[in-house]
Specification:
Helix 16 (about 410-430) packs across helix 17. With about 475 residues, this protein is α/β, with parallel strands linked by helices. The protein has helices at about 10-25, 35-45, 60-70, 85-95, 105-135, 150-160, 175-185, 205-215, 230-235, 250-260, 285-290, 300-305, 320-335, 345-355, 360-375, 410-430, 435-440, 445-455, 460; strands spanning about 5-10, 30, 50-55, 75-80, 100, 165-170, 195-200, 215, 225-230, 240, 265, 275, 280-285, 305-310, 340-345, 380.
Length: about 475
């Protein structure tokens, strides 16, 4: 994908240097001498990223940043300045800048920052496209949120929906695993075929095999008629195996065979039946821990974990709480014949401050109760359940809890942490750098730069 960058600086020589350096990366680069010129270019051109000086005559960097966030909220902006104070850096990030670099800067480091920002812009563009498609089909209404953690989930759904790959959705209870599974099915090639959901933890162990594969009449006591199993019901469509981590070991081998060979054998019937089923599994447990404890088959784990989608807890995406709460309020109020269009500022603050151990499910229940209690067009703080105020979790910006101990050498500590994360990703991907970069959420070029900087030898890891 070709990108178009805009460099904004009142120093012509620096502008020319940046344009020349960035153009070598295969992107189109335009330049402007101040913020007003930049806005004129933005009105005419489709710009993917802005790199702007902090201090300029006419319209400076902070003023340009405010205009960009108001007019072009999906265009990231990197702020650069020779006045490298912590105050300026913090202020630019708070005002919405994607990142901050200080002059003089290293071109390689600038390249890394630019590549990350462009990758972020691509995610935003893909997310907007996906949302447009979902709105058109009216099937994705409950997947609400704009946080980085949730955007990664939407991107994963978009990537896997048209394939037949097995998907493993992980996350705490109440994070919306079945909702994600249904979204993958409804927006894939099997949307007109059955979606069959099975909660592996809710069915007694003695009945689970029959539930999955079906049975013939007389196969066991109580089998008074033939029964079609869930695999057969989902033939041509999608089978959602919820809480797969609770499946008994004895049945796991048969599930593995069904996944590998696409055949099932009903209880009491020696004849095999071919099935074409796309399997999506979900669990709130750590299957790797279960494998280590001999409670889950390792071969089944790897068969299921073809395309993993980890779902963040609600406390990890608390910036999405206002939008989620409003979505639930409007939907539930309409069903109850009431007109509620949102929440008061105090009610929103109380919800954001709470920890939500029950995640989205708990939030929905909370909003449902508040919708019933509310008497006006807005849900007020007093309409919320009392338990929200008993053990609040302070928002990040207001937290005063003691942090980690201050290291004696910050640079060395950060380098050690960075190296440990990279080594973990490389070990997990067996030394495949492209896969490791994707796992870390960085570009391959960025990973290569870090490998060189940290003196990490991938060939030794791969062996």
């Amino acid at each position: 994908m070709s990108h178009h960058l805009l460099v904004v600086d009142d120093e012509p020589k620096l502008c020319d240097l940046l344009v020349s350096a960035l153009t070598q990366n295969g992107v189109q680069v335009s330049s402007a001498g101040n913020g007003l010129q930049a806005l004129a270019i933005l009105e005419l051109e489709n710009i993917d990223l802005i790199i702007s000086d902090w201090r300029m005559p006419g319209m400076d960097g902070p003023q340009l940043l405010a205009e960009v966030k108001a007019r072009y909220p999906l265009v990231p902006m990197i702020v650069m300045t020779a006045y490298s104070t912590v105050k300026n850096a913090v202020q630019s990030m708070r005002n919405g800048a994607y990142d901050y670099i200080a002059k003089p800067f290293d071109i390689d480091e600038l390249d890394i920052t630019v590549n990350k920002a462009l990758a972020w812009r691509d995610i935003l563009r893909d997310n907007a496209r996906l949302r447009a498609e979902l709105e058109e089909h009216h099937q994705f209404d409950s997947l609400v949120g704009e946080s980085p953690a949730f955007r990664r989930v939407l991107q994963a759904i978009d990537s896997v929906r048209d394939s037949t790959a097995t998907v493993l959705i992980t996350g705490e209870s109440g994070t919306g695993k079945e909702m994600v599974a249904r979204a993958i099915h409804k927006h894939g090639g099997r949307a007109d075929k059955p979606f069959v959901a099975v909660n592996c933890a809710a069915i007694p162990e003695g009945l689970l095999e029959s539930e999955m594969f079906g049975h013939r009449k007389g196969a066991f006591t109580g089998a008074v008629a033939d029964r079609v199993g869930r695999f057969a019901q989902a033939d041509g469509g999608t089978l959602f195996l919820d809480e797969i981590g609770d499946m008994p070991l004895a049945l796991q081998a048969k599930i593995l065979r069904a996944l590998q060979e696409r055949v099932i054998e009903p209880v009491g019937d020696p004849r095999e039946r071919k099935v074409d089923v796309r399997v999506i599994a979900a669990t709130h447990k750590s299957l790797l821990d279960a494998v280590a404890a001999k409670e889950f088959r390792e071969d089944l784990y790897y068969r299921l974990n073809v395309f993993p989608i980890p779902l963040p807890a609600l406390r990890e995406r608390n910036e999405d709480i206002p939008a989620l709460a409003r979505h639930f309020a409007v939907t539930l109020a309409a069903a109850a014949g009431k007109r509620i269009n949102g929440f008061s500022a105090q009610a929103v603050q109380a919800m954001v401050a709470y920890g939500w151990p029950g995640n989205i499910r708990e939030l929905q229940n909370c909003v449902e109760r508040a919708t019933i209690v509310a008497t006006g067009k807005q849900i007020e703080e007093q309409d919320l359940p009392a338990y929200l105020f008993h053990s609040p979790v302070e928002p990040r910006e207001n937290q005063t809890l003691p942090g980690p101990a201050v290291p004696e050498d910050l640079d060395a500590t950060l380098a050690d942490n960075e190296k440990n994360y990279i080594l973990a990703a490389l070990h997990q991907t067996h030394g495949v750098q492209a896969a490791a970069a994707q796992l870390l959420g960085i570009s391959e070029r960025s990973l290569w730069y870090r490998l060189k900087k940290l003196d990490i030898h991938v060939d030794k890891i791969a062996r």
